């Protein structure tokens, strides 16, 4: 390790608190410090090159150091870096809203900006709640006298972000259990079980404001896949029982599944859609909550009626981020990104079954270029590794030795490379992942 890296690590360990990281482990070990990137690759401060196998936490679309995105940001920077959307408009925010509506599922017509997937979900929850309270003018009341339609349905194993509202509709105990006293109660149903869902809706629809789902893939749960037709059935039941449908496309949006948005696979148009991560191509923080004109209309009224949606933050609709997003959407067309995703998805579908030659690969799940390889101590007995072993973590350390950066979800090895990755690079990533799993599980 060179002296510069040592000095940077020392400063890091003295001052930084890393997200989703047990800092005692961080402090006890050497760590990578990323210095630059280009295309599908990253370089650390030691000059070592790595394939970015997780798209820098699922956000990088067109590769690192993309000249088109760089130029778009620089061009906007010469005009204005930031101007508030509170009481003012700005050009990139307006143009991006128009473009998002053009590519969104039919019926979505309004865009509310924020800065992350968590806040996009938080906004959707608040909009859905407030919509029902003022839909017909005065706040509506249930038979019991309490506010009508204030509950939310979510799925077990759901992950929708880390703010209090988004955690309240989450379902992963590891992340969410400790905060339970702070949360509002949501109604949990089993993913894929339409019969259970209809029973709940039939019995409780008068108190349910919305249902929130991750379409096709529960990503943070370990790339768990929904049964074919489930999302379409959810849409039908929500419409039947007068419940709003929120789709969380934070992980699945912008091409990851082979279509621009995952809900397109089943022809579903939601009432609210949350997007973030890949919206700027992985360059700047930006998110959006899209909704229908029907919902938007419930927020219109005289000032003194207080129907305003009282939500926002300082950097809402930031011009630099919106300029990056506009450039990213242009690249989808110019570079035929979705066609490349589908070619790579076909390659993955062909190559991934070979991982079952490794005795500790228990399951493989794939949708588009979203991949989860689940490790197990005993595949036949379906016995998981003890959490103390940290097998997933061991695999990613082996991968780093071989030139790839990936990140596990427990003992599920996640592959989610940039949508622009070439097939040669993807094959290299698969080879490194295979040998890394073999090395870690055979020790």
Automatic annotation (TrEMBL):
**Pfam families according to UniProt:** Aminotran_3
- SUPFAM superfamilies given in the database record: PLP-dependent transferases
Q: Which reaction does it catalyse?
A: (8S)-8-amino-7-oxononanoate + S-adenosyl-L-methionine = S-adenosyl-4-methylsulfanyl-2-oxobutanoate + (7R,8S)-7,8-diammoniononanoate
In which residues is pyridoxal 5'-phosphate bound? Answer: 117-118, 248, 313-314
Keywords assigned = Aminotransferase, Biotin biosynthesis, Cytoplasm, Pyridoxal phosphate, S-adenosyl-L-methionine, Transferase
Q: Which EC number(s) does the record attach to this protein?
A: 2.6.1.62
Q: Which CDD domains match?
A: OAT_like (cd00610)
UniProt site (Participates in the substrate recognition with KAPA and in a stacking interaction with the adenine ring of SAM): 20
- Which pathway does it take part in? Cofactor biosynthesis; biotin biosynthesis; 7,8-diaminononanoate from 8-amino-7-oxononanoate (SAM route): step 1/1
Q: Where in or outside the cell is it found?
A: Cytoplasm
An example molecular function term from Gene Ontology annotations: adenosylmethionine-8-amino-7-oxononanoate transaminase activity
Residues found modified as N6-(pyridoxal phosphate)lysine: 277
This protein's cofactor list reads: pyridoxal 5'-phosphate
Q: What is its main location?
A: cytoplasm
Biological process (GO) annotations held by this record are: biotin biosynthetic process
Tell me which PROSITE patterns the record gives: AA_TRANSFER_CLASS_3
- Family of this protein: Belongs to the class-III pyridoxal-phosphate-dependent aminotransferase family. BioA subfamily.
Report the function annotation for this chain: Catalyzes the transfer of the alpha-amino group from S-adenosyl-L-methionine (SAM) to 7-keto-8-aminopelargonic acid (KAPA) to form 7,8-diaminopelargonic acid (DAPA). It is the only aminotransferase known to utilize SAM as an amino donor.
> HAMAP family in the record, alphabetically?
BioA (MF_00834)
What's this protein's name? Adenosylmethionine-8-amino-7-oxononanoate aminotransferase
Source species: candidate division WOR-1 bacterium RIFOXYC12_FULL_54_18
């Amino acid at each position: 390790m060179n002296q510069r890296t040592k000095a940077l690590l020392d400063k890091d360990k003295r001052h930084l608190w890393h997200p989703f990281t047990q800092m005692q482990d961080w402090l006890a070990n050497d760590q990578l410090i990323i210095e630059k990137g280009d295309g599908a690759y990253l370089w650390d401060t030691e000059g070592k090159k790595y394939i970015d196998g997780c798209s820098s936490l699922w956000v990088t679309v067109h590769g690192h150091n993309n000249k088109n995105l760089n130029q778009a940001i620089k061009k906007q920077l010469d005009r204005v870096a930031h101007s508030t959307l509170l009481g003012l408009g700005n050009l990139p925010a307006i143009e991006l809203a128009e473009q998002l509506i053009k590519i969104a599922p039919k019926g979505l017509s309004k865009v509310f900006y924020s800065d992350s997937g968590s806040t996009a979900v938080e906004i959707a929850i608040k909009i859905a709640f407030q919509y029902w309270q003022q839909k017909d003018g005065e706040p509506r009341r249930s038979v019991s006298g309490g506010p009508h339609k204030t509950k939310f349905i979510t799925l077990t194993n759901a992950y929708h972000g880390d703010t209090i509202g988004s955690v309240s509709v989450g379902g992963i105990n590891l992340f969410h259990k400790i905060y339970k006293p702070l949360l509002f109660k949501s109604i949990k149903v089993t993913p894929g079980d339409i019969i259970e869902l209809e029973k709940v809706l039939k019995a409780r629809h008068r108190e349910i404001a919305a249902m929130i789902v991750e379409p096709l893939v529960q990503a943070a749960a370990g790339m768990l896949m929904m049964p074919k037709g489930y999302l379409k059935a959810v849409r039908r039941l929500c419409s039947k029982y007068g419940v709003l449908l929120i789709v969380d496309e934070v992980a699945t949006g912008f091409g990851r599944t082979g279509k621009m948005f995952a809900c397109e696979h089943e022809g579903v148009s939601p009432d609210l859609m949350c997007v973030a991560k890949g919206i700027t191509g992985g360059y700047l923080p930006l998110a959006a909550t899209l909704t229908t004109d029907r919902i938007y209309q419930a927020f219109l009224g005289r000032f003194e009626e207080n129907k305003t949606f009282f939500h926002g933050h300082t950097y809402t609709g930031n011009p630099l981020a919106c300029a990056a997003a506009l450039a990213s959407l242009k690249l989808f067309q110019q570079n035929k990104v979705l066609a490349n995703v589908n070619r790579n998805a076909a390659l993955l579908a062909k190559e991934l079954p070979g991982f079952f030659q490794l005795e500790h690969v228990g399951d493989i799940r794939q949708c588009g270029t979203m991949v989860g390889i689940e490790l197990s101590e005993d595949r036949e007995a379906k016995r998981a590794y003890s959490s103390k072993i940290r097998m997933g973590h061991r695999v990613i350390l082996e991968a780093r030795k071989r030139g790839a950066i990936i990140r596990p979800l427990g003992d599920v090895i996640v592959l989610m490379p940039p949508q622009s990755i070439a097939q040669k690079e993807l094959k290299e990533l698969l080879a490194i992942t295979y040998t890394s799993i073999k090395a870690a599980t055979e020790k």
